[in-house]
Queue: 2 jobs
Job 1
Amino acid sequence: MTLALYGHPFSSYTQKALIALYENATPFEFREIGPDHPDHIGAWLEKWPIGKFPMLLDGDTPVVEASIIVEYLQLKHPGPVRLIPEDPMAALDVRFMDRFFDLHVMDAMQVAVASKLGQIPMKSEDGLELAHTRLRKAYDWLEGALAGKTWACGEVYSMADTAASMSLFYADWVLEITEDWPVLRAYRQRLLKRPSFARCVEEARYFRPFFPLGAPDRD
């Protein structure tokens, strides 16, 4: 059966699922969630009334949460690129780094965005300051954790790198990853050159003017 992914190309977590699909050239149909596709919205909410994307639809089976989608694809629709190692301890390292990027980089960045949009009871300048504080801590830790590695967990690209791609991409727009963090900066550049993520970046380029804090003139 055809796989369908519901989401938006500018959505960080949609991109995380897209990377997994692109890495293995897995056939699927992309169903964009937006005002131009009301039929997609209805079908999506019928399967997942919580109303967050991405959602993968495998036949009649909905799969939600980006990390779970990545794992599901490896179990049900495997390809040549394994994003979660077979070894249990190595897999645990990958899952930890996946969580680190989602919880300590992406979530920190979203504080600035949410306060700018008025989604949380915090002034936008206070939200930005808090995001900067949290991101500096994360950047400092990653600078040491990534030293001597090509990818997040060593020399093999994994689910941790799918999480890192989108979180570091948008975090850099909130607090630039400067030469103060040379290891992290170089790692982000390697992620941008990965064909699966480079494709996501290009597909979302049109939507950059809608970034609430103003998108900088750089990838």
Job 2
Amino acid sequence: MPAEPPYRRIVEEIRGRIRTGELRPGERIPSVRQLARSWGVAAATATKAMAALREDGLVEAKVGSGTVVSVQRKPPAAPPRAVGAKQPLSRKHVLRAAMAIADVEGLDAVSMRRLAAELGAAPMSLYRHVANKDELVTQMADEAFGEAALPAEGPDGWRAKLELIARRQWELCRRHLWLPRAVSFTRPVLAPNMMAHTEWTLRALDGLGLPMAVRTREALTLHGLVITVALALAAEVESEQETGVTLDGWRLAQRQRTDQLLESGRFPLLAAIPPDTASDLNGLFEYGLACHLDGFAALVERP
């Protein structure tokens, strides 16, 4: 019987500590760097274990706290079917394997050679499904957007509809931190699932008497709001994973310099900002969404 991969042993230990209550919902688990040091494994192995825990719904990344035990855990996902040399590859196999690499190690880690090794296939066999890495990333993004099912009609009113699609896209970007980097506004691609999101947003604005150019700009601006905050989230999670230092730890290291500046009297308004206001990216997203839609409502109501 083959030995269990090192990353799985880490996953099972963390899972056991969560199950017994040793690690409670909202409580921080060891960082990638701490796992690597404690288990004597490479950072890539520890990162893979962290991704597996996240995929199983056991943990979630929380800016300022690192990775914590999920408050609402989802049932574990069914393990992907193994792809062997005798089993022909499908487009979905290829895309899902590429997405799994990107979820764990980021978009830069995805290459045709790496993907072939992950699938146990010859690199040239992948070119039957994608022409190059650019096309691969486009199709990965389209596959991700396909995870967010959109209702045929949606809730009543244009505002409720726009809130729904913005929050669906925000959840996608939190699930796939690489996704914001895979989207282009100036060079949009012919990707059916992504196009369906734009079409749905444009249809939500039917009946308002707005020119198509305004409706298109609204769809792009709404999506841009999601992407902007999601990029900040991805950058913070990446920093925490690479350095092992949470946002709270970073602030602690900067405390002396921060106190000197804020207590100097030069920045009285900055000194009055409540803690965690800037780092609450979910709150920032909701605030930006509400303010944006308030502004758009004023445009809609304009004679």
